[in-house]
Amino acid sequence: MSILSHSVAGYLDHASWIRRMFEAGGQLKARYGADNVYDFSLGNPDLPAPSAVAHGLRAFAAHAGEPFAFGYMPNGGFAWAREKLAAHLSKEQGVPLKADQVILGCGAAGVLNAFLRAVIDPGEEMLAFAPYFVEYGFYVANHGGSLRAVMSHKDDFRPDLAALEAAIGPKTRVVLINSPNNPTGVIYSREDLTALAELLENKSQEYGRPIWLVADEPYRFLAYDGVEVPSVLPLYPYAVVVSSFSKCLSLPGERVGYAAVSPRLPEAEELMAGLTLTNRILGFVNPPVVGQHLMAAALDSQVDLAVYAARRKAMAQVLTEAGYDFLMPAGAFYFFPKAPGGDDVAFVNALVEERVLAVPGSGFGCPGYFRLAFCVDEGVIRNAAEGFARALARIG
Ligand code: PLP
């Protein structure tokens, strides 16, 4: 019998695909050498943080010997950091935001957990479009709720609003969207978001309680060819943006994330009080000191987008030449091609034979596809070309 809770023992028995690929990758790298393994399994940004981050770190270090330099602070972050973030997000989101409409936490993941703890009662549901970032299911289950996946339109991975409407019921407390999307790279259009906001207005009225719209957008900065990433904050009073500096500043290990609410939210003060408390009682306590200093120093910077854009082109060329069926990602750093032969797990295993690591779509609630993360050097993409071609020739 396990010493762990039933749920955690169960999770461990069904280790995530990303974790399985990570382990398979470790074995392959030990056997063939890291240079001979083409690892597209992890979304760990490999670009260096912009130079403003190192400057911020040095400036902070000059004061690191002072009392309380690393002390506790208000649970939602330093007041000055919230001011700066609010000014930055006002520009980015196109709505006027004050410091008390934003809150800092421990990465988008920590803030999502704080939010769900604040609004979900046991037995309630969060809806998200599949394919989706697999952690969402764990986050909502942490707070006694459950994730209900609604399949996106299969031809273009746009949100299927009719399917969403059919899935919303009295237990629906949150609808979560992720645009630019992990794993598809799709960016939701203004028309789709406006229609989604309208649907949620109507459904909230029908059930007599607001349904939250959470936009998880750590890839907002990464939109190619000038495609617009519309903000949900002006569209719906119960909209909340959750994001972080993990990708735009390549700071995922430093855990700086935040939530920003619509300026039209009538109960903003109550929600912020809730988030301040849940940030504390979930054990995050407060966002990291150093991370907030780095954020403030680098708010006007971002990693070099041109590098991601060049890799996207290179990957598209490799996949096209090999004969894969895929949509060009409009944003983020993933491709989500169709699995040749239809069985995503079998195909990802065929790629492993070629020392190419990918993640089956099943890991994102969408069998029949596989995900490739291009947070790798362009050379890795080009060197994997033969492996991609051989795997497809064998299975496709
Ligand atoms: N949401 C999505 C869609 C992600 O891909 C990730 C990380 O990969 C996160 C949230 C979590 O990001 P953070 O490092 O800010 O917790």
Automatic annotation (TrEMBL):
Q: What are the GO MF terms of this UniProt record?
A: pyridoxal phosphate binding; transaminase activity
InterPro entries membership: Aminotransferase_I/II_large, NHTrfase_class1_PyrdxlP-BS, PyrdxlP-dep_Trfase, PyrdxlP-dep_Trfase_major, PyrdxlP-dep_Trfase_small
Pfam families named in the record: Aminotran_1_2
User: Would the keyword Lyase be found if you checked this record's keyword annotation?
Assistant: no
Q: Which UniProt keywords apply?
A: Aminotransferase, Transferase
Q: Which residues form the Aminotransferase class I/classII large domain?
A: 37-386
Coiled-coil regions, chain positions: none
Stated EC number for the protein is: 2.6.1.-
Swiss-Prot/TrEMBL cofactor(s): pyridoxal 5'-phosphate
Q: Which family does it belong to?
A: Belongs to the class-I pyridoxal-phosphate-dependent aminotransferase family.
* NCBIfam families to which the protein is assigned, alphabetical: PRK06836.1
From the Swiss-Prot or TrEMBL record, give the protein name: Aminotransferase
What organism is the protein native to? Desulfovibrio legallii
